[in-house]
Fold this sequence. Notes:
Layout: E1 4-5, E2 8-12, H1 19-30, E3 34-36, H2 37-45, H3 49-56, H4 58-73, E4 79-81, H5 90-99, E5 100-107, H6 109-116, H7 130-145, E6 150-154, H8 160-172, E7 178-179
Parallel strand pairs: 2-4, 2-5, 3-4, 5-6
Antiparallel strand pairs: 1-7
(3R,4S,5R)-3,4,5-trihydroxycyclohex-1-ENE-1-carboxylic acid (SKM) binds near residues 15, 49, 83, 85 and 124.
GO cellular component, one term: cytosol
Pathway: Metabolic intermediate biosynthesis; chorismate biosynthesis; chorismate from D-erythrose 4-phosphate and phosphoenolpyruvate: step 5/7
Subunit structure: Monomer.
Amino acid sequence: MKPRLKKTVVMVGMMGAGKSAVGKELAAVLGVPFLDSDAEIERAANATIAEIFARDGEAFFRDKEAQVIARLLDGEPCVLSVGGGAFLRAETRRRVSAFGVSVWLKADLDTLWARVRRKDTRPLLKTANPYRTLAELMAAREPAYAEADLIVATTADYAIETTAEKVVEALALRPDVLSVPELPGKP
Length: 187
Ligand SMILES: Nc1ncnc2c1ncn2[C@@H]1O[C@H](COP(=O)(O)OP(=O)(O)OP(=O)(O)O)[C@@H](O)[C@H]1O
Ligand SMILES: O=C(O)C1=C[C@@H](O)[C@@H](O)[C@H](O)C1
Ligand SMILES: [Mg+2]
């Protein structure tokens, strides 16, 4: 028998932490749908995140992001990966804590940098010194991420599957979130 997810798992953390990659694998392991707020926003707007930032501005994007997350939290339990800035909004943290369980995927700066440096899809990193920007964002955001219900550390050495397994282990310690069936024959 498979473990049963009772609440939506919300993956939070910095860009490049692996929220989308690990979230997708986690959903497959748990046998639940995978949703991604960035992808949902792009689909609804029929535009990329970079285009939305350029055309409508970051404040507009943040409002849409909060609305999309509120809507997705209303559905059946799933794995929901959110954008790196979503958990900075206090209202979103409250909603996630009321209707789901948050997991901070915590990675060190150099691991994050190795994963984001080659892609130009992240508008906040289009600065003169993107490594420094990433470091500054990380320092400013950690207090908000630290409010997550669970913290799972990942490093450059962890494969996506290994990190997903670590998340399952953390969730399994919370019977209100994940019911793990007893092994047959156990007294
Ligand atoms: N061990 C690993 N764990 C997680 N991601 C990895 C790993 N190895 C490589 N990657 C790659 O790192 C990249 C960044 O991961 P991902 O897009 O999942 O981050 P994210 O947290 O969703 O970022 P964002 O906030 O920008 O959406 C992806 O291309 C992913 O496949
Ligand atoms: O960390 C952030 O603020 C962001 C991360 C991405 O997931 C996107 O939501 C967008 O690029 C902003
Ligand atoms: Mg993502």
